[in-house]
Amino acid sequence: MLFVDYxxxxxxxxxxxxxxxxxxxxxHTSLCDWISNFLTDRPQSVRVGNCASSTLTLSTxxxxxxxxxxxxxxxxxxDCTAASSSTIIVKFADDTVxxxxxxxxxxxxxxEEIKHLENWCxxxxxxxxxxxxxxxxxxxxKKQERHYQPVRISGTTVERVDSFRYLGVHISQxxxxxxxxxxxxxxxxxxxxxxxxxxxYTCTIESILTGNITVWFGNSTKQDRxxxxxxxxxxxxxxxxxxxxLQTIYYKRCQTKARRIVKDPTxxxxxxxxxxxxxxxxxxxxxxxxxxxxxxxxxxxxxxxxLVPSRTSRQKAPVRPA
Length: 322
Description:
Blueprint: E1 2-4, H1 15-24, H2 29-39, E2 42-44, E3 47-48, E4 51-52, E5 56-58, H3 69-76, E6 87-92, E7 95-100, H4 108-123, E8 134-136, E9 152-153, E10 156-157, E11 159-161, E12 163-166, E13 169-172, H5 178-209, H6 213-216, H7 222-239, H8 246-263, E14 273-275, H9 278-283, E15 290-292, E16 296-298, H10 311-316
Parallel strand pairs: 8-11
Antiparallel strand pairs: 1-7, 1-8, 2-5, 3-4, 6-7, 9-10, 12-13, 14-15, 15-16
Helix pairs in contact: 1-2, 5-7
C-alpha cells in the first residue's frame, strides 16, 4: 500500500479545468458557472494578531476550511482511477492510497500503477509530497521473508514503514490493532484530566447553581436563567469540557422527583399522580410516565413546571420538603 500525500492539494485546483469536469459529469451550466465565480477573483489576506497583510486576489485553488472544498477536490480528481485489475486506488478527499495485490513476486502492475499516478499528477498540476508519502507492505506469508523493490517517485525513494495512521486508524503491517488500541488508550488517559476537572466542577460549582432547582427554576425569568447559564459556559471554557445545561438538569431532577412521589404512598402529594397504563404509553409515545389527577398529562420534558403543585393543589394537600 502506498499512502500518497499531496503538497497543498486544494490550492492546486484550476477552476476552468474543474468546470469542464463538472459539465462532463452532467452538472447544470448555471451551477458550474456559480462554482467558477466562487473560485475566481477571491480576495485573501493573512492576519496575525492585530496585523494584517495586504490583500491578494486569487483565481486558483479552493478556500481552506470551506465545507465545499473537499467535495470540489473529489470531483476534480474523479478520473484518478486504477489502470490494472490487480490494483485499486482508494480516495477520501485528498487522502489517496494505492493498493496492489502482488502474486508470485510479480510487482510490475503495482509499480506501473504508481508510475501512472505520478504521470497523472503532472498532467493535473498536482504535486506529490514524497517526504510524507509512505509505503506499507502487508505480507501474511509464513514462508521466508520476501524482498520487495523500493518505490521511487521523481527519483526519490519512498520511505517504507511498519505502521501508518490513515483517517484516524493505525494500520500495521501484521494487520493487528495493538498500535491503534494503544494510541486510543493513551489519548483517553490524557482526557482523564478533563474528567477530574469536571468532577471538581460538579462538586463546587454545579451544586451551588442547582440547589433546590426543582423549586425555583421553572418560574424563573429568561434573564435569570441566562445569567446562570453564563456561569456554566465560563466553566466549559476553563475545563475544555461540554457541561450539561441547567435546563437539562432541571428536567431530569423533575422526573426523578415525580418518580419518587409516585413510588412513595406516604408522600402527601402521592395522590396527585397516577401511572399511565401500558396501552396509554404506546398511544402517547411523547407523554411522560405520570398523570396528575384531573385529566392533565404530566409532561416533564415539555412542561416540567407542572411538577411544582399549583395553588389549587397546595390547598388540597400539604407539600413536604424534598
